[in-house]
Write a structure and sequence with these properties.
Chain lengths: 639, 260
C-alpha cells in the first residue's frame, strides 16, 4: 500500500488557495495559444472549463457524446446551488459552508479542497448572474435564497425547479461563444473510448463518432475528464439514461487511481418504481422537504387512503427522531430512515415501497398559490408520472441512487495519478467525502470548471512549454485506435441471446441489493461472486445486432455496461475493505445503538484509491490519509 | 417488483424505419400489450427488447433525462410533435393517455432543417448554430460584479425565465408547416433581451441570431402550431418581441449606440 501525495499547499486553511494562486507557475498570455487542451464532457464542469480555458487563450477541443452540449445530465438538477453569499444575513460565511460540507461529508473529504470550494462559491453566483442565469428574485429585484438539507442557513440559489438547466445554459452559451471565437473546437456525438499515454504522461484520447462509427485519435498537452458520475451502475437511478462510467473507467485502466468507489448517494425523495418495465427513477427535488412533512401510518399494512388516516395514527418519524433538523436531515439519514420504516412494513402505495411527503399543512399555512409558485412544475411532473394529484393527496416517495461521491482520485490541482490527466465535476472524488450535501454538486462542478482548473492547469503546462503534442500517427495512438475498432467488432460477433439492457438491469439489481443503502460483509462477498458470474454470461451471451458504421445504440451501450461490470466489482471490494460506516456507506455491522452510522476514525480516516493491475487481477488499494486541522471530528448529530 | 396497478391495453404501432438520411424509409407495424403505467418510451424499450429477441435491429430513438428537461427526446405521435398531451415532452407521456385498440403512428420530427439520422433520430444541430451566432452575454469568467449589484425587477426576471425555460427540443420546428424555428430563436432572444445584463448586445445579438436562423429554417407565417406543440408552452409573444427587436436592430443607428 503506497501513500498518495495530495499536494495540499502549506499555510493556514483560509490562506492556502490565495497563497497558492500566487506561487503557482503561470503560462503567459501569448504562450497559452501554444497549448492544446482536450476537455471531455460538456456538463457544468466541462462546459465551464472549456469556455474559461478558451477565453484564456488556450486551444481547446471539447467532446461530448450528446448531440448538443446543452443536453448533459447537469441539465436535470432541480433544487439549487449553494454559495456563501450571506445575502440573507442569517450567519452564513465561507467558514460555515466549509464546515457544513466537511461535516455533511462525514469527515471523509480533504479540508483544503472543501475550503477552496466554499471560497469560490460566491464567484459562481456572480458569474452565472452576469451570463443571464435567471435565478429567483424577491420583489425588490434581489436574489432569493432557500434552505436545503444539512444546513441551518438559507444559502441555496435557485431558478424555479430547473437550476441545473439554467446554469448549464449559462455555461453552454459561454462555451458556444468560444466556439464562435474559434478558441474551442466542438465535437458532438463523439464518445471517448480510450485515454492515450506516452512515456507515462497523458497525450490524448481515442474517440468514436456515434453516427459514422469512425474511430479517431486526438492529441493534446493535457486532457480533462468532466464526464459525470456512475449512478447508472444501479440501472435504476435518477441519472439520465446515457450517464456512464466509461471515460473514467478507461482512464482508470490507463493508470488513474479510482477513489472511494463505494461512496454512493441515495436521494431520499424519488418517485417509487411502479413495475418491471421501469427505465429510470425520477427525483422530486429535495427542496420539497422544506415544506413537505414526511410520514407513514403508525400501524403495519395500513391500507386506508392517506386522507382517512387521522393525525394520531401517523408517524412523522423524522420530526420525532431528529427534532432539531426534522425533515431537513441530510440525505443519507433521511434515506435510511425511509428504508427502515418500509422494511418494517409501514410502506405506502400499491407496492408498499414508499413514504408520504405531505403538503397539506404547508398549503393550509401559505395558501395553494404560494406552494404552486414554488413547486408547481414538480407537482405537475409528479402527476404526469403517477396519475395522482399532490395538491390533494400526499406524494409517495422512496430513496433512489442519485449521485456518486467516488470517482477518479485527484490532487489539489485536480490532476489524477496520470500526469497531464485531470478530472473535474462529479467524475472526480474530491470534495464531498462520504456524503454530498444538497445543492453542492452544481457548486463543485462550476467551481472546478470556472475557478480552479483554469489556474491549476497552468502550473503543469508551464513546464511543457516548447514540447510539441504527440503526433496522432505515433504507435501509441494507432494501437489504441485498433483496439477500439476491435472492441466494436467483438460485441457484434458474440451473437448471444440476451440484450445489453437485460444484463444491465440484472447487474443493477445485484448492485442495489448488495451495495445499496445498507451493506454487510457476507452480502458484499456474495455480491462479488454474483457480479462475476453475470459478467461472464454477459461476455458470452449478449446479443448486439446491426453494424459498427452507423448509429447503433446497443453497441454503444455494450461497452458502457462492460465497464459497469468491472466498476461494480471494485465497488463491492471497496465497500468490503471499508469496515466502518460513514455517510452514504452504511455497513450494518457498524452502527450506533440508535442505528446511526458509526465511523472508525482510527482506521479509516483516509481516502481509498485503487490502482488497476491489468485484466483478471485485483486492484491495489492505496490510501491518502486525511488530517483535520480545523474541524474536530465528531459523531454527526442532527437531533 | 412485480404486479402493476395500471391496466393493460393493446395498441397497434406504426413505426417509421429508415437506415440513413438518404435511404428510403417506411412504416413497420407492431402489436403491443402495455400497462397504462408505462411511459411511452418504456413501451418503445419493451418493443426493442422483443425485436432484439427476434433477431431484428431495435428502433433507434433518442432520449436521455426522461423527465422533460434535456430536450433529447421527440417524435411525431399521430402527427403531433411530442404527442397528444399538452405541455409534455415525449419522454413524459404515459400510456394512460391512450386507449385499448388505439393505433399509434410514430414518426421522426419532420423538418427540412432536421435530416433523419436513423429511424426516429434526427439531427438538430442547426439549433446550436443559432446559439453560436449570438445566444450569449459576453462576459469572461472572473469579469462579473457582485450578483446583487443590479436588481432585476421581478416581473422582468419572471418573463425572462418564461423564455429561458425552452429545452431546445425542436418540436416547434417539427410542428410548423414551414419548418420555421422562430419560437426557439425568440425564446433565447427574449430570455437575454429582457434582462439588464443582456442589453449591451441586444441588437447585434438579435440580428445575428435571426439571420443564422434563416439560413437553416423556413419562414414564419403565424400558424401558431409551434406553441401548441411546445412542451414548455413558450408564448408566441416572444416571436412578436423578436420581430420588433429585429426591425429596430436593422434601423437603429448602431454606431451611435456604440454597438455593432
Ligand atoms: C435528477 C437530479 C437532480 C439534481 N439536482 C441537483 C441540485 O439541485 N443541486 C446540485 O448541486 N446537484 C444536483 N444534482 C447533481 C448534479 O446535477 C450533478 O452532479 C452535476 O450536474 C454533474 O455535472 P458534471 O458536469 O460533472 O457531469 P454531467 O452533467 O453528467 O456531464 C457529463 C458530460 O460528459 C459527457 N460524457 C460522459 N462520458 C463521455 C464519454 N465517454 N465521451 C464523451 N463525452 C462523455 C456527457 O456527454 C456530458 O456532456 C442532481 C442530479 C440529478 C440526477
Ligand atoms: S420553443 Fe418549445 S418546442 Fe421549441 S425548442 Fe424550445 S421547448 Fe422545444
Ligand atoms: S428525454 Fe430529456 S426531455 Fe425527454
Amino acid at each position: 500500500m503506497g501513500i498518495l501525495e495530495s499536494k495540499v499547499p502549506e499555510g493556514t486553511l483560509a490562506d492556502k488557495w490565495e497563497n497558492h494562486k500566487f506561487s503557482m507557475n503561470l503560462v503567459n498570455p501569448n504562450n497559452k495559444r501554444k497549448f492544446d487542451i482536450i476537455v471531455v464532457g460538456t456538463g457544468l464542469a466541462g462546459a465551464s472549463a472549456a469556455a474559461t480555458l478558451g477565453e484564456l487563450g488556450y486551444r481547446v477541443k471539447a467532446f461530448t457524446f450528446h448531440d448538443s452540449p446543452r443536453r448533459a445530465h447537469s441539465i436535470a438538477a432541480q433544487g439549487g446551488i449553494n454559495a456563501a453569499k450571506n445575502y440573507t444575513n442569517d450567519g452564513d460565511s465561507v467558514h460555515r459552508l466549509f464546515y457544513d460540507t466537511v461535516k455533511g461529508g462525514d469527515y471523509r473529504s480533504r479540508e483544503a479542497n472543501v475550503h477552496r470550494l466554499a471560497e469560490v462559491s460566491v464567484n459562481i453566483i456572480d458569474q452565472a448572474t452576469a451570463q443571464g442565469v435567471p435565478f429567483a428574485r424577491d420583489y425588490g429585484g434581489l436574489l432569493d435564497n432557500r434552505s436545503f438539507g444539512g444546513a441551518q442557513v438559507s444559502r441555496t440559489f435557485y431558478a424555479r425547479g430547473q437550476t441545473g438547466q439554467q446554469l448549464l445554459i449559462g455555461a453552454y452559451s459561454a462555451l458556444m461563444r468560444q466556439v464562435a471565437a474559434g478558441t474551442v473546437e466542438l465535437h458532438t456525438r463523439a464518445e471517448l473510448l480510450d485515454v492515450v499515454k506516452k512515456d507515462g504522461r497523458a497525450c490524448g484520447i481515442v474517440v468514436r463518432d456515434l453516427l459514422s462509427g469512425e474511430v479517431t485519435p486526438h492529441s493534446a498537452h493535457a486532457v480533462v475528464l468532466a464526464t459525470g458520475g456512475y449512478s447508472n451502475v444501479y440501472f435504476l437511478s435518477t441519472n439520465a439514461m446515457m450517464c456512464n462510467v466509461t471515460a473514467a473507467w478507461r482512464a482508470h485502466k490507463r493508470g488513474a487511481y479510482f477513489a472511494n468507489p463505494c461512496y454512493t448517494q441515495i436521494h431520499p425523495t424519488c418517485i417509487p418504481a411502479s413495475d418491471d418495465f421501469q427505465s429510470k427513477l425520477t427525483l422530486m427535488s429535495e427542496s420539497l422537504r422544506n415544506d413537505g412533512r414526511i410520514w407513514v401510518p403508525s400501524a403495519f399494512d395500513d391500507t386506508r387512503p392517506a386522507a382517512d388516516i387521522p393525525e394520531g395514527d401517523r408517524d412523522y418519524y423524522l420530526e420525532r427522531k431528529y427534532p432539531a433538523f426534522g425533515n431537513l436531515v441530510p440525505r443519507d439519514v433521511a434515506s435510511r430512515n425511509a428504508k427502515t420504516v418500509c422494511d418494517e412494513g409501514h410502506g405506502v402505495g400499491p407496492l408498499k415501497n414508499g413514504v408520504y411527503l405531505d403538503f397539506a399543512a404547508a398549503i393550509a399555512r401559505n395558501g395553494l398559490d404560494a406552494i404552486s409558485e414554488k413547486y408547481g412544475n414538480l407537482f405537475d411532473m409528479y402527476q404526469r408520472i403517477t396519475g395522482e394529484n399532490p395538491y390533494e393527496q400526499p406524494m409517495r416517495i422512496y430513496p433512489a441512487i442519485h449521485y456518486t461521491m467516488g470517482g477518479l482520485w485527484v490532487d489539489y490541482h485536480l490532476m489524477t495519478t496520470v500526469p497531464g490527466l485531470y478530472s473535474i465535476g462529479e467524475a472526480n472524488f474530491s470534495d464531498h467525502g462520504a456524503n454530498r450535501l444538497g445543492a453542492s454538486a452544481l457548486m463543485q462542478g462550476l467551481a472546478d470548471g470556472y475557478f480552479v482548473l483554469p489556474y491549476t492547469i497552468g502550473d503543469d503546462l508551464a513546464g511543457q512549454l516548447g514540447n510539441p503534442v504527440v503526433p496522432v500517427d505515433d504507435p501509441v495512438f494507432t494501437t489504441a485506435v485498433a483496439g477500439i475498432e476491435d472492441e466494436a467488432h467483438r460485441w457484434l460477433s458474440i451473437n448471444g441471446t440476451r440484450s445489453v439492457d437485460h444484463f444491465h438491469r440484472e447487474l443493477g439489481r445485484i448492485v442495489w441489493d448488495r451495495i445499496g443503502m445498507a451493506r454487510n460483509g457476507p452480502g458484499l462477498e456474495k455480491g462479488l461472486s454474483e457480479i462475476s458470474a453475470l459478467r461472464s454470461e454477459f461476455h458470452s451471451d449478449v446479443r448486439v445486432l446491426g453494424s459498427a458504421d452507423t448509429l447503433n445504440q446497443s453497441l454503444e451501450k455494450a461497452g458502457r455496461v462492460a465497464d459497469f461490470f468491472e466498476l461494480a466489482e471494485l465497488m463491492a471490494r471497496d465497500a468490503l475493505e471499508r469496515s466502518e460506516s460513514c455517510g452514504g456507506h452504511f455497513r450494518e455491522e457498524h452502527q450506533t445503538a440508535q442505528g446511526e452510522a458509526q465511523r472508525d476514525d482510527d482506521n479509516f480516516a483516509h481516502v481509498a484509491a485503487w490502482e488497476w493491475n491489468g485484466e483478471g487481477t485485483v486492484q491495489t488499494r492505496h490510501r491518502e490519509e486525511l488530517t483535520f486541522e480545523t474541524v474536530a471530528l465528531s459523531q454527526r448529530s442532527y437531533k | 417488483m412485480s404486479g402493476s396497478h395500471g391496466e393493460t391495453i393493446n395498441v397497434t404501432l406504426k413505426v417509421w424505419r429508415q437506415t440513413s438520411a438518404d435511404a428510403p424509409g417506411g412504416f413497420e407495424t407492431h402489436q403491443q400489450a402495455i400497462s397504462t403505467d408505462a411511459s411511452f418510451l418504456e413501451m418503445l424499450d419493451l418493443l426493442n427488447e422483443e425485436l432484439n429477441a427476434a433477431g431484428k435491429e431495435p428502433i433507434a430513438f433518442e432520449s436521455d433525462c426522461r423527465e422533460g428537461i434535456c430536450g433529447t427526446c421527440g417524435v411525431m405521435i399521430n402527427g403531433r410533435a411530442h404527442g397528444p398531451q399538452k405541455a409534455t415532452a415525449t419522454c413524459q407521456l404515459h400510456m394512460r393517455e391512450f386507449a385499448d385498440d388505439d393505433e399509434i403512428v410514430i414518426e421522426p420530427f419532420r423538418a427540412t432543417g432536421f435530416p433523419v439520422i436513423r429511424d426516429l433520430a434526427v439531427d438538430r444541430s442547426p439549433l446550436d448554430a443559432i446559439i453560436e451566432a449570438g445566444g450569449y452575454i459576453s462576459v469572461n469568467t472572473g469579469a462579473a460584479s457582485d450578483a446583487n449589484l443590479t436588481p432585476v425587477p421581478k416581473a422582468a426576471a419572471d418573463q425572462a425565465f418564461d423564455a429561458a425555460a425552452c429545452i431546445g427540443c425542436g418540436a416547434c420546428v417539427a410542428a410548423c408547416p414551414n419548418s420555421a424555428a422562430q419560437l426557439f430563436t425568440s425564446a433565447k432572444i427574449g430570455h437575454l433581451g429582457l434582462l439588464p445584463q443582456g442589453q449591451a448586445e441586444r441588437w447585434s445579438r438579435t440580428e445575428a441570431m435571426v439571420e443564422t436562423m434563416e439560413e437553416f429554417f423556413g419562414s414564419c407565417t403565424n400558424h401558431g402550431e409551434c406553441t401548441e406543440a411546445c412542451p414548455k408552452e413558450i408564448s408566441l409573444d416572444f416571436i412578436a418581441l423578436m420581430n420588433r427587436d429585429y426591425m429596430k436592430a436593422k434601423v437603429k443607428n448602431r454606431g451611435l449606440a456604440g454597438q455593432h
